[in-house]
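Pasting two entries for a bug report.
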Amino acid sequence: MQSEPAPFVLSHLLRVSIALWLGGAFGVFSFAGAKGLGAPIWLAIFVAVGVVATVAWACWKCPVISLDKNAASSALTILFLLAAIASLVHLVRLCVFIVNPAAVGYALGPHRGVGLPPSHLCMTAYFVAAQSTATVPNIYDEYKLYSLPTQNPDAPRKARTIGQFDIDAYEYPPPFLLLPRTLALVAPQFLSFRMLWFALYGSLVLIGLLAVTRIFDPVVGTRVLLLSPLVLGAEVTIGTLQVENLQAAVIALAMLAMVFFMRGRYAAGGALLAFATVSKLFPAMLIVYLVVRREWRAVAWTVGACAALVGISLLDTGSAPYHAFIHQLPKLLSGEAFPVFRRPGAIATNLSVPGLFFKLKLFGLPNGSFALMKIVGSIYTLIVLAATVVIGMRKLSRNEQPLIWLTILILASLRSPFLPSYGLFPVLWLLILLTATVVPAARALGLMLVAWAALNKAVPVFTADPRIIAAMAFVSQAIIVVLLVVVWRRSKESPVGMQAESSFP
């Protein structure tokens, strides 16, 4: 009886720590959002403090998941506390740079995060394309909107700029522009738009992490929650939030959609998965998975929402962006439309499967061409499609399903001609989910941390020998393969002749 107070006190301290971590993270995002909406600094601070207090109190009263006292070892608890503190420090520093672009010292440099300089901002492409649809018929015209004219089209691009930031090239389907065009209505100025985008982006990623946590049973869910700061605070994630690339948000949207489907919220799930699909295409592989599992309500809502989004987009921008997209699509599939392929360093960092063959050029080998990438990409698409069908026929436990969703998304994302370091966000997520399914002994946590550190090792795009960079990227690719194989082997197959059963209500 006398030994009971210690575990009781520790569990309450853990609840408080989790509540404060979540409150702090959402507080950072709310501060940036308030500034993006034009609030003065004192009001933004007031809003942030209010969000911190409200979220922390709510998470204390109604925890994200019912914590299992037997799930958290001492090592796991200590790891959570350290990672939570580090993640908040990273977020606060990044928020300073988001709100004040002159504070470059608070940003991750080219040797950290995703290996890009602070001047790189993927979101510039979304902002420029959204602003240009009314005046420029071809929003994919690189030299009209994104790059300065050059007499050598094979030379590295010289980007146009917005303030201190280089404008990235737009390489997404037209329906995605519904989001930046809507945000531009409330934040028409670029810097305000950037702050608001960061606030929504970071909040979505964190909500996605928490929503998936609730799918698992209390034991595994507790471990997932305690390991989540390793995803949110990872330099890969912070670097992705800094460049504000869409990739991590699409992954979070797709996972959140599957959570909604599992809870019988088909309309919400369909809307989220539809937007993820029309924005980046690769989440469509989850629709295939749903078809195989005969989740007809989820499929119907998703397909219907896709049609609605395309229709709304046509009404908003007209058909010109769609004609341009159809013309651009073959180049997008082969990689020819991506200006980054003019830089050896960017080629070396590419994690995609088709990109492996393009790296042959770096070692003086033949066949590194866009034509080969397109062929390899088509073959790989068929392989992923077959794998999705096979895995969709398996009987999966509740704890296995999020791992399978994430595995399908990772496999599908590797089809892209160009997938730099921000493509490691779902890999980090899968790593902690896998770790949470085993007993959190020091050895298991140690192995996880080694893989985590290797994935977080920045691969600088614009420096060093590209062959060395390619070797560093290969380590990340090897870890991806190992994780995917582990998930594949651990999932249980359905008995021969049986159809996959519905996982949803």
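Entry 2 (this is the one that rendered wrong in the viewer):
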Amino acid sequence: MLYRFSAARLVSCLGVQNSWIELRVRYAGYLAPVRISLPVDEIYMISGPTTLAALWRQKWLSSPIFAYTVGLKYIFGMREESIRTYKADNSGVYQKPHPDSNVEPRNRLDYLTHNGLLKGLAKEGLGPLLQRFEHNFRSRLSSLGVTEEWVEMPDLLEFFEQNVGNSILEALFGPTLLTRKNFLRDLWDFDRGIRFLGKRFPWFLAPKAHRARDRMLAHLQAWYIEARKGFTEASILPDGDGDPFWGSELVRSRQRYLLAADEQDDAAVSSVDLGLLWTSVTNIVPNALLTILHVFEDQELQSKLRQSLANLTKRSDGVSFNVEDLLQDPLMNSVYAETLRLHVHVFTTRCSPHQDFTDGRWFVPRNKVFMVNSYPAHMDNSYWNTKDGKHPLNTFWAERFILDPSDPLSGPRKDGLSHDDLGDKGIEKAGEKLFTLKGLDGAWIPYGGGYGACPGRHLARRQLLLIMATMLSMFDVEFLTPNITMDTSGFGIATEKPKQKVKFRMRKRVV
């Protein structure tokens, strides 16, 4: 049994920011899946923490290939003949292909792409990439020349685009790409127009968006030529991963396996790389901004976080922090998780080409498209703890993800959680406050879930913790724009951003 909605209702919901709330159907008091009838097919909107947790556990439901091909075509501009190779890949994201698939190894683009991202963002490449990012970020902040006197700045988003966005781009793609004339301007023009491309607006209705995309694809294809001429094995940095031309082994490897597949050329690869480039900066930048916005708006929270940082041992340079120490800090990690819960409202799309899905209550046939949106999950009052309404889900509560043994009303879940529920970890740290995501597999889903969850989630968490620690230790920040509101026009594909320019002032912190 699934609730049915018309195509017109779907369009109205997906086309107008948070009108998604209209699809929050409840069955017996709980979020439930719905089926949306379209003119030629149907889409299944899956919600409810129990159903989602079951969905993530289904091995052959981990492939995002349907959404990937739609994005490659309509957002990132790939030609149909190149997309056919992606559409034909029903082998799955695992090293061993599905037994009913006969896709050639070179054409297993779902697995090859996902595996490359895992290696580059979560496994071998994670440490070197994070170190390069931190070095770039600190260097950019130091070059600002901020002194102990207050200095006003006109736009908080621009500050993070230049200092966070450029730092990750250089770490991942190398400095050569960033030196191209107007590249960064064109990137942010493309970002501003992506909501029109995502809604499939034709050129004559969104010419700026289409032109920005064309310029970005031209940048990437010209960069390929330049990088191939300049790169040698001797170009690889001592960290074994980075280089000044391609940037990282993640990007170098994509040149090898993507171009080896059928119907793929530089034009096709540039669409894929535009997707990687866009996702690598346009989620971390607003998430970093919103984290800092929440932290520096709350003096008490600032003091607590700075006290936590004061108890950590810095590296030999006396300035930077060990990211492994930051990962153990309950409050910093709760701030990170709460920022994503409140502001990340995105769709995760899956398809099961070979078998049906059921969680024991709901049934969806094979070869149908599943869509999951994080907004209903993140705003589910039946599941999340609000501490008897003191901390509503549409507000930021820095300690929502902290389990305090002295407070029976603490923890993220409304039904409660004890230290004993955490197993060995709870026993080892009995009596201490703990950060926890336990039991939230179907409720906290900013990265999707299961094996197909965003491969960059480990990098993103570490980046946000480092940004938070660095800004708190280096600067005082005050916001000068009152009544900041959020722009939700990117609902479904991007993190919220402030609707207006946020003026602020900052100064070097003196301890």
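Dev reply: Rendering is fixed now. As a check, the viewer should reflect this: The first helix runs from residue 7 to 15.
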